[in-house]
Design brief:
The complex is a heterodimer of chains A (365) and B (147). Chain A is of the alpha+beta class and 365 residues long. Chain A has 13 helices and six strands. Chain A has helices spanning 9-24, 34-40, 42-52, 57-66, 71-82, 156-161, 189-197, 201-212, 281-294, 311-317, 320-328, 335-357, 359-364; strands spanning 54-55, 87-90, 100-105, 220-236, 241-257, 270-277. Chain A is globular, with a radius of gyration of 26 Å. With 147 residues, chain B is of the alpha+beta class. In chain B, helix 1 (7-16) runs antiparallel to helix 3 (88-101) and helix 2 (19-29) packs across helix 3. In chain B, 41% of the residues are buried. Classes of the chains: A alpha+beta (365), B alpha+beta (147). Chains A and B meet through strand 1, strand 2, strand 3, helix 7 and strand 4 of A and helix 1, strand 1, strand 2, strand 3 and helix 4 of B.
Amino acid sequence: MYVAVKGGERAINNAHAWLAEERRGDTDVAELSIAQIREQLSLAVNRVMAEGSLYDPDLAALAIKQSRGDLIEAIFLIRAYRTTLPRFGASEPVDTAAMACDRRVSATFKDAPGGQVLGPTFDYTHRLLDFALAAEGEETVAPKGEPREEPTPHITEFLNQEGLIQTEVESDEVPGDLTREPLELPSTRPLRLQALTRGDEGFVLSMAYSTQRGYARNHAFVGELRIGKVPVEMEIPELGFSIEIGEVELTECETVNQFQGSKTEPPQFTRGYGLVFGQTERKAISMALVDRALRWKELGEDNLGAPAQDEEFVLYHSDNIQATGFLEHIKLPHYVDFQSELELIRKLRREADARNAAPVREAAE
Amino acid sequence: MTDEITRKSWMSLLAKAPAASLEKLWVATGLSPDYGWLRAPEIGATMVRARMGGTGAPFNLGEMTVTRCSLQIDGGAVGHGYVQGRDKAKATTAALVDALMQGEMAQSLQAAVIEPLMAEMTAAKTDRAAKAAATKVDFFTMARGED
């Protein structure tokens, strides 16, 4: 219960002024620019765009600066900002097969057309602190090869040609939108994917990890992981045709999962799908594993009671802004609530004391 | 001799072009036509959609920022600007270029603005593709232990 109380204005203003001073830190140290954050902390920027659900690197960098690097706070700022924007429309579905791939690897096919392209990855680094970065860093120039001109085909399409993997049926159905209608259960796969792609990376990662450790295990292989830019095309009403209104960097993960077959489906491979704004591969792989676990019903699998199979559990706890809003509100004044709790405890204590004072007679009756 | 390009291609190019490059090329043309707003620049969002599994039914991935405006050159054509991000100046320049590309200025503007932008963006894309290509794995088989 909340009761309007006056007071605290001066304290609040001074707290915010101190926050601004602390945010700046030691003024002998150069101030960070938005461009520096955007260019040099780009994976933090990508996470804020993905979970803030708004692709705009400069805004995400500003949010990171304002939040002193607290990424959930930064995501909160982006979510709040996006509610102020008029919606111009929805794009055509992006074509990830036409992606200009910076990175493209497959754990299932060594010799896939297009090859294994590592891209700017942390994989195979030794995870040793590089003290050279603490000194004035010198610029490294990346070597170049012969650029591939043709698009890189999706690896799952090769399995599809043999009919060994469940097909994704193309449609032009208009998907539900979590930002417009509240989530209702049972939900649909498009809504689950929207919730997962903007869900908290840590939460989605842990859910995915739980499936690997045996809670609704579904034997995922990373059929393909690709990172790169795709154009975004939208129909412009005043023109009557569509144009590309920009391009976004995406990480896409397709998992290939073993499937023994069920009452309704023959033995085949099945798919999990992850697609996330920016270079965000931990999140994209996690999303694909959780997507696959949540598909148990449509594939006729058993409900093993695993957390990752429970869409209510997953979808209602994946959003870190909802979670942090509810969690952090308990630190705000609850004086009246607590006053009544205090009254209750005192009353219970008096009653207990009274019972303890006269136990013998009651027991004898 | 330049190939004629469609309105769809030049608008798509202007939407994605680096703002600073577009501004520099536009200023260099020395053009500053008078115009009136049909829709003053406004910042908004577009919901980006994708397909489940890359090929299946659509789902909503998240929004992106877009700035748009519409204007009419005095005694001339209507131009629309739709550009990525929050940049009213860029949207205005894009709309002016769009309007002029529909008239007799088309050829000279194509040479002065559109083609240099295209070259710059193609070079940037090729540069990334070349770096990606250098990280492609060449597998080789180690000597087997049979003999």
